[in-house]
Amino acid sequence: MDTRSVRQYGPSGKVLHAMGNDQHHSETTLRVNGKPHTLTVDHRRVLLDLLREDLDLTGAKKGCDHGQCGACTVLVDGRRVNSCLLFAVALDGCEITTIEGLSGDGEEPHPLQRAFLERDAFQCGYCTPGQICSAAGMLAEAAAGHPSHVTDPATPSGEPVPLDREEVRERLSGNLCRCGAYPRIAEAVEDVIP
Length: 194
Fold this sequence. Notes:
The protein has helices at residues 47-54, 111-119, 128-143, 165-171, 182-192; strands spanning 5-9, 15-20, 25-32, 35-42, 73-76, 79-82, 95-97.
């Protein structure tokens, strides 16, 4: 058995993990905010911890750590997910977009980020990155024709779902805001609906 030590370094140059080669770690490549990252990852490590601790991307927050609050929402291959529930090794080869990379390479904020600022759609701001990532995923889902619980059954299958206040509220119901900024959040999202 090969017992050579493997060291993994973070963006700041500090050693993140030092371990022997064993059956509980795998080399995993994730494309995060447009940049590839290859890391040796413990099979039990969730995406949220990898983003925050290994890549210093602290926008996604650890709220409940049970997938119930939405504070950790990021996009994986364009779909919104609770990063606290996904094992990082299962995402080998996936494209991950966090709040830090939502606007792409540009210096201008994403339209949702701008709308949240203009509408003052936050108070403490803890849930805001997850709310914005969830809203971005929700807009893409509706445009692709994915219905929600409140979508009119007469809506043609596979065609874009029209978004009104009820649709927005239903589709964002998995993201909690302890401060109660829901009316402003819904208004901010409505501002960017095409």
